[in-house]
Amino acid sequence: MATTTSTTQTPPNNTNTNLCFSNYLHSLTQTPHRLRKRMLATWTPDQELNQVRQRSGADMKRKLKWYDLMALGVGGMLGVGVFVTTGSVAHKTAGPSVFISYIIAGISALLSSLCYTEFSVQIPVAGGAFSYLRVTFGEFVGYFAGANILMEYVLSNAAVARSFTEYLSSAFGQDDPKTWRVEVDGLIQGYNMLDFPAVALILLLTFCLCHSTKESSTLNLIMTVFHVVFFGFIIIAGFCIGSTNNLEKPKGLTPFGVRGVLDGAAMVYFSYIGYDSASTMAEEIQNPSQSLPVGIIGSVVITSLLYCLMALSLCFMVPYNKVSTQVCEFERFLARQFDKLCYETVNQLGGTYDTSLIFGILAQIAEKVSFSVAFRQIGWDWASNVVGAGASLGIVASLLVAMLGQARYLCVIGRARLVPSWLAQVHPATGTPLNATLFLGLCTASIALFTDLEIVIEMISIGTLLVFYLVANALIYRRYVIITNNPPFQTLLFLFLLSSSAVGFSMSWKLNQQRWGLPLFGMSTVTIIAFFKYMVPCVCNSTGWSMPFMPWPAALSIFLNVFLMTTLKKFSFERFAIWACFITLFYLLYGVHSTYKAEEREGTGIDEVNPRTAMQQIKLEIQVL
User: Fold this and answer.
1) 545-591: per-residue pLDDT in tens?
2) Which residue has the higher pLDDT, 164 or 494?
3) CA dist 314 to 141, 166, 382, Å?
4) Which among 261, 230, 258 has a CA at the least distance from the CA of 102?
5) Which of 46, 59, 268, 375 is 20 to 30 A removed from 33 (C-alpha atoms)?
6) Helix or strand or coil: residue 524?
7) Residue 53 in 3-state DSSP?
8) Nearest of 80, 5, 169, 78 to residue 370 by alpha carbon
């Protein structure tokens, strides 16, 4: 009898498995039909604020104020970027005018932040660019942007965490970061230096973010205040000790011309990336319609001012041609490295001694710590350790903010059912997206443990610029088509012509076609924007903050983001193509079917697990107002 029972229990399990597989195969055959239904499916802001938001089970807690948001924006941007890029750009690209490059890059960042600000006020949800694009251009565009910015977050956070080890070792007087890492012989080059301090930092911040957003914000506020004071120390010291003669010698303020200034702006722009994290806090900010514009725009303005003054102070202290790469002037700093580097280089080359390679490696080390070396040159050795400590503090703050933002992106993507729904859950006690925070924290820690910093850095940047570009396009389309009710063809044609003109200008710049290419495409861009503004009416939003002087700010943001994308290396576009194929395949095999079935189950759009949705919608609308 027992044998009979055992025999009869096995087939149902196999039947269930076969049935699930059969259902999935049937779903795949329905892919074209479901793509037509879901790819361009949009949600209204009210649905995002209420119906979709309820899928997390609990609400995020509105405890943050405008100064918390501003500190998060500043903390997210004031990372290690300014320390790594300023010296290299001043020496090789822009000269003493590197501070002008920071001004131009700051203007570009400000234009993009204005686009984010209007969307965040009108749609105050945690999804950031994903939600803005989903309500404007449909599900697939929102998903594509969200997946790209998530990858950028994870990779850049891993890179930042590994750079934390380098600056922390500098703060303790150890100039070789390898002393803080563990080398494993069995792994391939580039993945064989295990960085346990980076992993420890990521896990510590992950648990902090899981516990409380408000307490994490307070920690960031404290670190950001100290970091701004540290920036002030460098700026004041540079202006007091330096000389204006260093700005004029040896070849004037702009030794590389206007091209050098603009190329430098493209290189330093990535130091501004991070303000978009502030927009993901829209569900946790009190009085979002007033706090969001102050927090997002204010943080970009403060950061731009600090970056410009930092770059100027460096060029005050040291002539641009002696910043970073003039190894012969840094004997004291490099002497401690020379013996070890010689030995390592000889081993890598199989016993062949190569002096040029030695000094190339030394130059790279000096480049990464240009501010530290500048202080050593003027005899302030103790200040170089302060730079290492301050940079480490800034890295922790920027990593905290970025990890805060990435979890909210994934949470809202989970609400849309484009990834498994358990990632969308908000813990009822802490009010934080617990599952998304833990999942991304572990992913980031795994990459930071094995992957060399240079490998990670080469794989980031293009996705973020693409998202900024799409958000600016979405803002124009939303203003002129969705709100003003103009025919979509006019706006879509304008966006196509504007992007084409921007590509033409950028390629002319890249190929040195200054005689005819730049004037032609530059004038055509201005003409296209002016003609569109004159011919197509626009209605401002009746409630909340809205972008002034439309479409000029958003159109210029589109132009500048296209220009910046064309400055990236070929490898970035190759990586982007591979990643785009992967996330598109995931959408075809999982995302479109998951969202189709979710909408099918919900029927009228009311979440079955929450019978009090109507009452909560009224409460949430009152909160937003």
Assistant:
1) 788 888 999 999 999 999 988 887 787 788 888 889 999 999 999 98
2) 494
3) 42, 21, 17
4) 261
5) 46
6) helix
7) helix
8) 80
Separation between Cα atoms, residue 520 and residue 120, nearest integer Å: 36
- Count of other CB atoms within 10 angstroms of residue 29: 8
Whole-prediction pTM value?
0.81
What Å distances lie between residue 59 and 25, 168, 315, 415, CA to CA?
36, 38, 49, 12
Separation of alpha carbons 160 and 499, rounded Å: 32
User: What are 302's strand-pairing partners?
Assistant: none
Nearest Cα to 423, choosing from 24, 20, 46, 57?
57
- Cα distance between residue 446 and residue 130, in whole Å: 25
Residues 624, 436, 213, 83, CA torsion sign:
negative
Angle between helices 196-211 and 434-450 (to 10 degrees): 170
Q: Are 594 and 413 in contact (CB under 8 A)?
A: no
Cβ 538 vs Cβ 467: under 8 Å: no
Start-to-end CA distance of the chain, whole Å, equals 68
Q: Is 605 helix (H, G, I), strand (E, B) or coil?
A: coil
**Helix, strand and coil percent figures for the chain, each rounded to 5:** 75, 0, 20
Locate 596 and state its tokens.
Answer: 């189709």
DSSP 8-state class, residue 9: H
The predicted model gives 501-523 an average pLDDT of 86
Local structure of 182: helix, strand or coil: strand
Written as one string, the DSSP assignment of 299-364 is HHHHHHHHHHHHHHHHHHHS-GGGSSS-GGG-HHHHHHHHHHHHHHHHHHTTT---HHHHHHHHHH
Phi-psi region of 274 (alpha: psi -120 to 50; beta: other; left: phi over 0): left
Residue linked to tokens 């979890």: 407
| Cβ within 8 Å of residue 347, ≥6 positions away | none
- In the block, residue with structure tokens 């939303």: 478
Nearest Cα residue to 64 out of 301, 279, 287: 287
Residue 210: HSE in the Cβ half-sphere, 13 Å Cα cutoff? 16
pLDDT per residue as tens digits for the range 472-511:
999 999 999 998 888 999 999 999 999 999 999 999 888 8
Distance from C-alpha of 441 to C-alpha of 209, rounded to nearest angstrom: 10
Residue 161's nearest CA partner among 206, 215, 128 is 206
Q: How far is CA 477 from CA 113, 132, 133, 472, in A?
A: 17, 11, 10, 9
The residue type found at 313 is: S
Q: How far apart are CA 187 and CA 171, in angstroms?
A: 29
